[in-house]
Amino acid sequence: MNLFIAESEILEKVKILADKISDDYANKEVVLLGVLKGSFPFLSDLGKALTIPVKVDFIQVRSYRGTNTSGNVELIKQPDATLVKNKNVILVEDIVDTGLTLEFILDYVKKLHPSSVAVATLLYKKEKANIPPDYYAIEIADHFVVGYGMDLDEQYRTLRDIYTIDPVE
Ligand code: IMP
């Protein structure tokens, strides 16, 4: 496991992103909709760095991945539909890899009639993703990473920094 992005750099980049979102959403009713489980540290730091008031809710999905690229995504925790309706929803993700998870969640959330939906992700694997997020803090190459919410078999989520790891280690 190798240190990849230190907490200080993460917080610097999250602050820059939070300033941009605060400008773009001034005077709007905003709901940060965190995608569990990986988004919890990012949602917390982003939320604290915003200068606008927001509400918070969560959604959880489970992805099944075979050896081929077509993953299958299932909803396991719904957000509060009344909180989302007619609000400006910002989906908060830890990492956009292929974008399949996001595609599924965007389809689902749009059916709840928000005024708008945008995506804010901490990490963005640009080479692989087929949906560009509206906001991202840090663009990375195609590494498997853990820490700051992200896991390998449910381990490492509470680490302060982000590490690269070989999934067969
Ligand atoms: P996607 O559907 O391929 O975009 O994958 C998104 C989800 O897969 C993320 O929300 C993570 O839960 C997980 N994921 C993708 N890449 C990584 C990684 O490098 N480390 C840990 N989790 C990852």
How is this fold's topology laid out?
Elements lengths: L1 E4 L1 H18 L5 E7 L3 H10 L5 E10 L7 E6 L3 H4 L3 E9 L3 H11 L5 E9 L10 E5 L5 E2 L15 E3 L5
Parallel strand pairs: 2-3, 2-5, 5-6, 6-7
Antiparallel strand pairs: 1-9, 3-4, 8-9
The chain binds inosinic acid.
Commentary on this structure:
The strands form 2 sheets. This protein has a 6-stranded mixed β-sheet, sandwiched between helices. A 3-stranded antiparallel β-sheet has the order 1-9-8. The protein has helices at residues 7-24, 40-49, 81-84, 100-110; strands at residues 2-5, 30-36, 55-64, 72-77, 88-96, 116-124, 135-139, 145-146, 162-164. It has 4 helices and 9 strands. It has one domain (7-141): Rossmann fold (3-Layer(aba) Sandwich). By secondary structure, the chain is of the alpha/beta class. It starts with a strand and ends in a 5-residue tail after the last strand.
The CATH architecture can be named as 3-Layer(aba) Sandwich
Pattern of helices and strands: EHEHEEHEHEEEE
Mean pLDDT: 93
- Unreliable stretches, pLDDT < 50, 5 or more residues? none
Q: Give the distinct bound molecules.
A: inosinic acid
Task: Specify the number of helices.
Answer: 4
**What structural class do you assign from the helix and strand content?**
alpha/beta
Number of strands: 9
CATH fold title: Rossmann fold
The first-level CATH class name? Alpha Beta
The global form is globular
Q: Which sheet architecture does the biggest sheet show?
A: 6 strands, mixed
Task: State the end-to-end distance.
Answer: 8 Å
Number of domain units: 1
Task: Tell me what portion of residues adopts beta-strand conformation.
Answer: 25-35%
User: Nearest-angstrom radius of gyration?
Assistant: 15 Å
Which strand order spans the largest sheet, edge to edge or round the barrel?
4-3-2-5-6-7
